[in-house]
Design brief:
193 residues
Length: 193
């Protein structure tokens, strides 16, 4: 009888340990599945944003094309092209007046001032075109950064759900006071359905 009880207790402990191991592995598999699904969701959301950002940083407008906002790419190209043209034109004028200013102040008889401006006027012209050349460089950098930020934000907002469950209403409001005075204004209602 003692042997029978020892066999039964042995089988009970073995079966319990096997069940415990099986449950742990299932729990671990469930945790892995949930972690992998969270990673897949994060990769779908943020991986696209990262890719769009890198594409826009490498070549302006490419992130917008990747996000399927095709109309934004020509806007970026026109902005960068216009700013680039403005900057190159100012650089050419800056060099022109700078060269003529050097021609006045050097002691070489072969170099002459091609303009009718004096030295002070040439310095003023040179500073004017230098200022607008620098502004065009800063604007070009700003358009480039806005291009990258726009691609990132568009990729993040691709998964943003805009549904009819939210509503915002702006209505006129009127009420008679207890002193028979009219109260008027606007009421703002935000409804979550």
């Amino acid at each position: 009888m003692k042997r029978f009880i020892s066999y039964i207790t042995f089988f009970i402990f073995v079966s319990l340990s096997l069940n415990a191991q099986q449950n742990d592995s299932l729990r671990f598999a469930y945790k892995n599945d949930s972690i992998q699904s969270k990673r897949a969701v994060n990769k779908a959301i943020y991986g696209n944003a990262r890719k769009a950002t890198i594409m826009s940083a490498c070549f302006p407008g490419l992130g917008q094309i990747y996000n399927r906002k095709y109309w934004k790419a020509p806007v970026i190209y026109v902005a960068l092209g216009g700013i680039g043209y403005w900057g190159v034109t100012n650089q050419i004028k800056y060099k022109y007046y700078s060269t003529n200013l050097k021609a006045i102040h050097d002691e070489d008889a072969n170099t002459i001032n091609e303009t009718l401006y004096s030295s002070d006027q040439l310095i003023t012209q040179k500073k004017y075109y230098q200022k607008y050349r620098d502004i065009s460089i800063m604007l070009g950098a700003l358009v480039y950064l806005v291009n990258i930020i726009d691609a990132n934000v568009d990729a993040h907002l691709r998964t943003f759900d805009v549904s009819d469950d939210l509503s915002l209403q702006l209505n006129p409001y009127s009420n008679l006071d207890y002193n028979n005075k009219l109260q008027a204004g606007l009421s703002l209602k935000l409804k979550f359905k």
